[in-house]
Amino acid sequence: MKLHAIFLREGCVLPDRFALQQEWFCQHWMLVEGLEAVTLDAKIRSVGWHFMWMLGSNGRHGYGRTRDGAIHRALERALKVTSRQFNASELDSYRVKKYLGFHIAKVILCPRQIQQQTSLEIANV
Description:
The chain has 125 residues and is of the alpha+beta class. It has one domain (5-115). The protein has helices spanning 37-46, 67-80, and strands spanning 5-9, 22-26, 29-36, 50-53, 58-64, 88-99, 102-115.
């Protein structure tokens, strides 16, 4: 998993004819493939939309037999508690330690919002 990877909530509205290669990651979330946050931000702004960087973050731990398994489990847990008000999330950091034959990962996600309007328009949930 690369730092600054972007996850989009299912149903995230994107600009017309705006193709992003996405892969299902976990319940209600898709992983944007091949683009980091800064590149996605530039693409979205180039068509007149906005990629808003929200304050705050959430971190979660996950464990697994492998490094990747631990990271994936921690990401699933962090995405699950990402506020439903936001339609995207960015992987800000992660750390993995090995302990007694298994891996423990801690991830930090930052909420993001993709929308056409310039003022923050948060979904009523």
